[in-house]
Design a protein that fits this description.
InterPro entries: Znf_C2H2_sf, Znf_C2H2_type. Keywords: Metal-binding, Nucleus, Repeat, Zinc, Zinc-finger. It holds the Pfam family zf-C2H2. With 67 residues, this protein is of the alpha+beta class. The protein has 3 helices and 4 strands; from the N terminus they run αββαββα. The N and C termini lie far apart (34 Å). The protein is flat, with a radius of gyration of 15 Å. Strand 3 and strand 4 form a beta hairpin. Strands 1-2 form a two-stranded antiparallel ribbon. The protein has one domain (19-66): Classic Zinc Finger (Double Stranded RNA Binding Domain, 2-Layer Sandwich).
């Protein structure tokens, strides 16, 4: 079960391969807007996740956690 219909639609796209969100920089496409947002940071130097101990910035939270 999915708590929101948008989550169900995103899950269904994982089975069909449908990719609705396209990067305007390189034309790579993604199944979710959140994946596109993460990808878009590869084209910029945006690093919104900062280590509170050393100040180093990361493009995604999982990399910060691994650090």
């Amino acid at each position: 079960r999915f708590s929101q219909s948008s989550h169900l639609r995103a899950h269904q796209r994982s089975h069909t391969g449908e990719r609705l969100y396209e990067c305007d920089k390189c034309k790579k496409s993604f199944q979710s807007i959140s994946s596109l947002v993460l990808h878009y940071r590869t084209h910029t130097d945006e690093r919104p996740y900062e280590c509170p101990d050393c100040g180093k910035g990361f493009k995604d939270k999982s990399t910060l956690v691994a650090h």
